[in-house]
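Hey all, sorry for the wall of text incoming. These are the three entities for the joint prediction.
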Amino acid sequence: MVTIETILGHTGEHLVLLLTTLFVSICISLPLAFASLYSKRVGYVIMKFANLAQAVPSFAVVAIVVPLIGIGFYPALIAILLRALLPIIKNTYIGLSTVNASMLDYADGIGLNKWQILRYIRLPNAYPAIFAGIKFASILINSIAILTAYIGSGGLGELIFDGLVGFNNEKILAGAIPAILIALTLDVIFTAMEKKLVPDYRK
Amino acid sequence: MPSKRIFDRIDSIQLRGVTKKYEGRFAINDLTLDIEGGEMLILIGPSGSGKTTTLRMINRLIEPDSGTIHINGQDIIELEQVSLRRNIGYVIQNIGLFPHMTIAENIGLVAKLEGWDKEKISERVKYLLDFVSLPSEMFMNRYPHQLSGGQQQRVGLARALVMDPPLLLMDEPFGALDPILRKQLQEEFCIIREKLGKTIIFVTHDIEEAFKLADRIGIMDDAKLVQIGTAEELIFHPANDMVASIVDTGKKFKHLDTLRIRDLMTPLDNKYVHAASLAVDEAIDSMLAKDIELAVVSNGNEPVGIVRLPDLMRLGETSDTIGDHAVSVPSFASDELLEPSLKDLHEKGHSIAFVTDNGRISGFLFPNDVFRQLV
Amino acid sequence: MLLSDLMNVWEANSLTTRTIEHLTMFSIAIVIASIIGVSLGIYLYSRPGIAHPVLNFLNVVETIPDIPLLVLLLPIFGLGEEPTIVASILYSLLPITRNTYTGLKEVDQQYVDIAHAMGLSQRDILFRVRIPLSLPMIAGGLRIALVFTMGVVTLGGLIAAGGLGAALIAGIQLYEVGTILVAGIWTGLLAVILDGFAGSIEKKLQRRYGTW
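and here's what came out:
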């Protein structure tokens, strides 16, 4: 018998992990993307690494973290970060760097400095890509946060894994259904935010 | 599955009251037009005048809202689209060679769909490539992106001819080429056309081109056919001011005896000049990159002759320089009188001459091209 | 770590067998997903009215986290390879179908136009012009699918499907650092190699079938 309190408790743990990781990954990714904009070499390395890391299965990343950092909430957070940072950096970088060359020329021409170009031209141009990156990362984080229960992060994954071990379908569903609902909610929220924040001319 | 041969020759094409509207605007307004079998009709007019729409209605890429089109007395709406189109060749400005097929596959595609056997297709492809002056053994297995624009346009023509259609529709086929190459291809096309003996409807916005190539010229404006007739008829009896102004720009022959070479020469771009010491294969690469088929070979500042791209390609592996293969051509000063120079060239059978200014080459004179403009 | 240690870990966990299991599930899933995805993409292209609802539905499937999807398939397929393969296929359908559909739809209009003018039938245009010119795009979709499938197949270890995921689980449960590192790095390496291989094929197709 799974009580509502159990479900809520695990959902809470799951959300804390999810939101913390999402927040940290945004805080780290955006400056890195801006930095790579002004150094071709950094940009190149980051893009290469991003493409490479995206190919590595999440389970392999989560497992390798265990002997290096241990188990629990923070190792889980770091494992998820390793997978979630790169889509945001990559998308932001692409958004910032694919600006119409004639627009940059014009900006130079009217005497905007680097910072102003970033603020008024590159950033607005990159909004849709940045949003797409964050949305993708949040859904990825939600799914890896279930897996990290295997290395002691708690959350909804714990219910699922307990259920698997004990052939307890009720427990499995108690973990799986909220996780799916969270994914769908994230999708809806980010899609709505995207519509609201991305200016009309971009649509 | 082979489609049936709908017509072996064109006796007549009749458009009657053809109208097409797009979003309330007339693309073609009540067009009536008769095309005779075997003629080359050129439609000319400003963009949006309806000339391309007219062309695309004949192979049913566009269906009219009202009116009829008959070929040899047969309403084309009753014909099956696919077989109608396989009986009509179509050549367009941006060529549209399929990038994933070799030149041979591009040309032979429809023949293959018609179920021809491999040998027959390959024979036909070779014949057509040679016909458009591309050495077949060299081009068959290349991909379109490995060809210059002029070469692609020749392949486009060869592809349109594969089923030996009695009717050719050409939509500004030379429009994207540079002036010298355009003149070369127009010249070649004049010769090809006589060999082909096909009915051709050709769209252009270049009145000189129309004068040079057309049997009759149809002038279109604002979705209507304004006037149709031979060059002389349009020049001497223009239907209105618009026709007169279009025709006027092509008229350069008012006082033949006072014309000088510079009036009718084709100015030369620096990209045509190549040093005599250049190796043949480097020259080929350079000409492909610059999309030219003719180069001036120069020794220092002095022009020693010309080389043509197909001739160079035919040489195969060689360590020669282009100086070894330069063909010398006559040279005239730009301020010389045109008439005696033309006579001279004509008698000696030259099809090209240098024009020089103070000893430096400044352009080409294509006597055949000039003759056609003067006729 | 010495080479002999590495060999010991490799053999103790029968990583050769695990790799074969892993790649077998992977290949089956990719082949089936490609067949269904490409056919579905072509079908949607011929029925544009239902393209959007179908792609939206696949989008929702894509949003479902992987482990819940796997466990939801358990009552239908039981434990093991089958639900793992089915989940991989479900994830792979979206990128393959969407790229096939978009690729077919966005072929440069000039080629379609000239093909019509040459008298190619709709069917010929589809098979001789649209599909070949969409191959780079389809390959791009397949490459994404390949990455998804590698991820899901590795998770299959959690529901007794074997493969390299099983080795990772054994390593974590018994806390054998050697096993975790060797199996983890090998799993990552295998995925990166396959992705790199797919990437080079994609580039080749772009050169061969791309437009200039």
